[in-house]
Each structure stands twice: as C-alpha cells, then as structure tokens.
Amino acid sequence: MTGPVPNAPPPADRPRLVTAFLAGVASLLAVELLVAGALLVPPANTVAGTARPAPPPPAPAAAVSPAPPATGAPAEPAPPEPEPEPEPEPAPAAAESGQRPGTLRLPGGGTATLVRKEVVGPNAVLPVPENLGEATWWGAGLGAPSGASVFAGHVNWRGRVGPFAELWHAEVGARVTVVDADGKAWTYRISQVLTLHKDELPNRAGELFAQSGPHRIVLVTCGGRWLGGNTGYADNRVVIAEPA
C-alpha cells in the first residue's frame, strides 16, 4: 500500500516532531523489551570486539646434530627457489556510482548516512538523528546470517522532506543498496511494504525487528495524517527488503 508523502507539520507543531517521533516511532520501533523479547540480545556480529583466548606458545624446535664436515671440494649451493607471490586480497564489491561508504541508497536515489545506535532508557527508545541526511542503524550487521538490520529516519524536518519520504512510494521488487564503511556494496530487494498505525507497530515488533530468522533489512519512517501533540503522525511506513 502506498500513500502520498506527508506534508510538513504546521509551523507551530514542528518543534514537537522530535518528541512525537521519539515517543512514537522511535520508542515503538525500538519497542519496549517486554513487547519484543527478541530484541534483548543483538547478534554476535554487531558487538565491536570479541574476546578470544591467546594462541598457544610455539613448540620448541627439535635439536639437530651438526653435520660432519664435508671432505673434498665443497658442492655448489643450489640456487634458492623463488618465493611464491602472495595472493592479492579480494577487492570489495564496487559500490553504486557516487555512493559514499557508510550510506544507504533508496530506490528513488535518496541517500542517508548511517549512524549506529543502541536503544536507551527504561522504555528502550531507539534514538533517531534529527539530521534529515542521517538514519539510525540498529541490529544485525550487513550480510549477517540472520536477524534484521533496522534503519530508521525522519520523513521530514523543519519544512524539508527527507530521503526516507521515498518509503511512501516504495514498491515490491525495487532495490536498496547499503555501502559499508569499507566501500563494499550490499544489495537488497524489497519484499514487503507495510503501513501500520502507530498503535499496531508494538504488536508486530517481534515479527519485524527480531534478531532471528532470515537476514533482512527493515526501513521505518513516519507518515500519514498529522495528528500533532505527542502523537505526531498517525502511521508508520515499514519496508522490508531481502538480500538480492
């Protein structure tokens, strides 16, 4: 289901957008941990640094008896064998033309810089950058064997429309490209497009954002009718894409 890109909120209500987003989308996106227990344990590949035991010390070299002195003329030493050339390291996949590392590109060409975030506070709120050009990244890493990589961004801010507004025009089959910090491109194909009322999102959290099941990316933003107050927009747009 697609819908029109929501208009910017009235000027008097714009300062409330962050509060509405964090209390609505962000808290519902991150979800109270009691609602989605699957979010309690992030996948292992999202932990920066994992302790490993130190390697065992090398075994002592065996004692070798000296060879008896040679008699007669010494033999000509054999020429040393050339050392094999080291195999070149595989180059990362080429990124989409013009796409910078650490960014996400939507089907319509909109690009957002990814910022790693963790849920905070007793209600497990997932902070979302106020900068329209940035999007929160939570959960599984790119190319993970399982779990959801969740990307959340504002639909608009201070009268400007953000790249995540494109989610309101997203279609099944379109591609989303994520380029990691090393410049490697990961391509995903949209498989589901959902419009959920804010009150419905917590009940779907375990299904949508769990760190189990096949790997996928989940993109989320606000939209629909502007209600104002602490509610903000009435709906959330959720786009799910699977590795292409």
UniProtKB/TrEMBL annotation:
Top-level taxon of origin: Bacteria
Keywords for this protein: Hydrolase, Membrane, Transmembrane, Transmembrane helix
Cleavable signal peptide: none
Gene Ontology MF annotations: hydrolase activity
Keyword Hydrolase among UniProt keywords: yes
Compositional bias of kind Pro residues: 53-81
UniProt key word Hydrolase: yes
Residue spans crossing the bilayer: 20-41
Disordered: region residues: 50-110
Protein name as annotated: Sortase family protein
